[in-house]
Amino acid sequence: LPPIEGDFYHLGDEALKDEDRALQLKVRAFLEAEIKPIVNDYWLKAEFPHHIIPKLAELNICGLTYQGYGCPGKSNLMEGILAMEMARIDTSISTFFGVQSGLAMGSIYLCGSEEQKQFWLPAMQQFKIIGAFGLTEPEVGSAAAGGLTTTCKKNGDKWIINGQKKWIGNATFADVTIIWARDLEDGEVKGFLVKKGTAGFSVEKMMDKMALRIVQNGLITLTDCEIDESDRLQNANSFKDTAKVLKMTRAGVAWQAVGCARGAYEAALGYTQTRKQFGRPIASFQLIQNHLVEMLSNLTAMQTLCFRLSQLQDQGLLTDEHASLAKVFCSLRTRDVVSKAREVMGGNGILLKYDVARFVADAEAIYSYEGTKEINTLIVGRAITGFSAFV
Ligand code: FAD
């Protein structure tokens, strides 16, 4: 039988330098050896496998694209490919990594002062400090740009923060959470480094999620939480600065969707080659091949789109609408791929041990976080028509 390979156009082989290709294969080998065997169990228990953190640190891939501060300074393409590799094995682990490396470290890298970057980034790169990113609120998700109700108020060289944050990944065990809050004085959104154990800062684990069960999402409450001015992100002056972080991480989420689809496609292809009905492998039936080819077409379209997206990013040409279009397209197509993967596996498609059921559930979270389909669509719509549909 031919090898099972979800990179049909050999994009990985073509685009990466030898050393980057070697890194990709090293990360893949780690994920297959250390993560794949344990992931269904942790998913079922809704627990995070903390013992993998030092092993992830050893790979030296956190903060992959940042220059300086102990970070590797590699290309955005390489980072996208590694996000894909992680999600190909498990979307939760990829999300844990994305929150640490992208949302939390990215906020500091893009919005922190030199002193803040030097203090936080090297330790976060090594996972000695775990980060979280608190933007969404119980009553404000899609409308975060204009609607944040968490407030901050300056009082001498301190800030007083009040409000709630919902869905915050890694929050239950993070050492530091970036909290975005609206300044009661000038009305602008500002970012704060809130350390674990700060008085007035509490986190409750969100229970009973049906997707990304390994990711520990928290409901955060801030009650007269006092933060030093030195822990305010010094270059976060309005939501425009928050949006710079989201533009970068949305591109990563598009790649994550590719990985989720690829993991499901590869599992389904392998299954159909060995599962026999009517005395033949089901992969030999025309209608099953039709499903597989549709999956591969979607997967290949997503991969090529993301390659171009990362090239634009590496050339400094990435816009919000580029990132949004990729996020919408990939999260939509991924939903289609994982559901077809489940379909060709018959009843076994809903059993956790065949992996695809987890990809089906996790694709739903990818579909909604980092901007829903509607919100990212309206960002692209605004760019191409010149009319904003947002109120
Ligand atoms: P809502 O905003 O209430 O939207 C509900 C529906 O209404 C959606 O279909 C939406 O598209 C639609 N809608 C809203 N406005 C419009 C409009 N103008 N036009 C048309 N349709 C509209 N947030 C963080 O800050 N940090 C995290 O680490 C984090 N991790 C997450 C992890 C998971 C697993 C999940 C599910 C979410 C996470 N989020 C996080 C939050 C996530 O970004 C939000 O769920 C997302 O932005 C959508 O917000 P909402 O859930 O409040 O939905």
Automatic annotation (TrEMBL):
One of its GO terms (molecular function) is acyl-CoA dehydrogenase activity. Keywords: FAD, Flavoprotein, Oxidoreductase. Residues 243-384 form the Acyl-CoA dehydrogenase/oxidase C-terminal domain. Residues 132-225 form the Acyl-CoA oxidase/dehydrogenase middle domain. GO terms for biological process: fatty acid beta-oxidation. Its cofactor is FAD. SUPFAM superfamilies: Acyl-CoA dehydrogenase C-terminal domain-like (SSF47203), Acyl-CoA dehydrogenase NM domain-like (SSF56645). Pfam families: Acyl-CoA_dh_1 (PF00441), Acyl-CoA_dh_M (PF02770), Acyl-CoA_dh_N (PF02771). Residues 18-125 form the Acyl-CoA dehydrogenase/oxidase N-terminal domain. Belongs to the acyl-CoA dehydrogenase family. Gene3D superfamilies: Acyl-CoA dehydrogenase/oxidase, N-terminal domain, Butyryl-CoA Dehydrogenase, subunit A, domain 2, Butyryl-CoA Dehydrogenase, subunit A, domain 3. InterPro entries: ACX4-like, Acyl-CoA_Oxase/DH_mid-dom, Acyl-CoA_Oxase/DH_mid-dom_sf, AcylCo_DH-like_C, AcylCo_DH/oxidase_C, AcylCoA_DH/ox_N, AcylCoA_DH/ox_N_sf, AcylCoA_DH/oxidase_NM_dom_sf. This is Glutaryl-CoA dehydrogenase.
